[in-house]
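[Q] Does anyone have a clean structure-token version of this?
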Amino acid sequence: MDILTHGLLGGTLAQSCSNKSETRDAATVGFIAALLADADALIQSSTDPLLTLEYHRQFTHSLIFIPVGALLVALVLWLAFKILKRPLGFRRIYLYAFLGCATSGFLDACTSYGTHLLWPFTGERIAWSIVPIFDPLFSLALGAAMLVGLRWRKTLPARIGLLLAAAYLSLGWFQHQRAEDAIRATALLRGHATEKLTVKPTMGNLLLWRSIYRSGDIYYVDAVRVGMGEAGRIYPGTTVRAFDPLRDLPTLSTSSVLYRDIRRFDFFSSGYLALHPEDPGLLGDVRYAMLPTSIRPLWGIRLDLQRAEIHAPFEASRRMSRQEIEQFIGMLRGAD
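[A] Here you go.
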């Protein structure tokens, strides 16, 4: 999720386990510790654009990294507290840092991006897809709880905030199941066998979901609205042919740098690859688009067969026309 929400969850959890005299220090330590995992974004290469994708949400987000990350944060903050003459001891700082670090991988696994939660024991990218990457309601509940706890110097508001956050994630799981059931029923009515299926919430809400499933060599993209007390409303989207390097790039050598980059991007995208409908030189990640019914990918890699021995450039586009914004709002509201 976004970095602010990470800090809020880490700070709230640490604050909920503190005593009255340490609520502020605990929240500070937990907030900072929860941000450490996203330091993996600093792993970059000027010649290899995909390097940052490989390491983002990798070892720093794993369960095994939690005690190590907590120790790093605790050492730095213990020295800072010494300088500031704060009474908090190293053991208490480490406890709050541990709690803050423990939230990062779990929270990111709740989104659809994919997190190496069990690294290095498995290379699987875990993505439960029960909450958007940015969700203001989730962040607001945590922020309000932590601020009230800081003002009152009590742990009860933080604990209430955590209960609300857990309830919200549970609601996300419930909505995910409803959306998946609705799209499976739709695929069945279409006569499609769903070989692989992904359902993920759209930005900032748990009402409107993006669905991508593969039948044969075609990806079918739809939007699903699952309002309270109603069956899933399907907004039919568009289709795109799944990418096949042997068919689509028959002259590309399998020993080339470009081919290896395609395989790396395929792993990152969980196999959901297709050529951009308006730009066949761009290989896109079908899972993500600004409009939930669109096949215009949010990001992809540039395919240049004339430069097959150079790493493929990574490109992202977040443009959204006024008409698409109106379409999104209409689907979110449940319009026909």
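[Q] Thanks! Anything notable?
[A] The beta strands are 196-201, 208-215, 218-225, 233-241, 273-275, 282-285, 299-302, 314-316.
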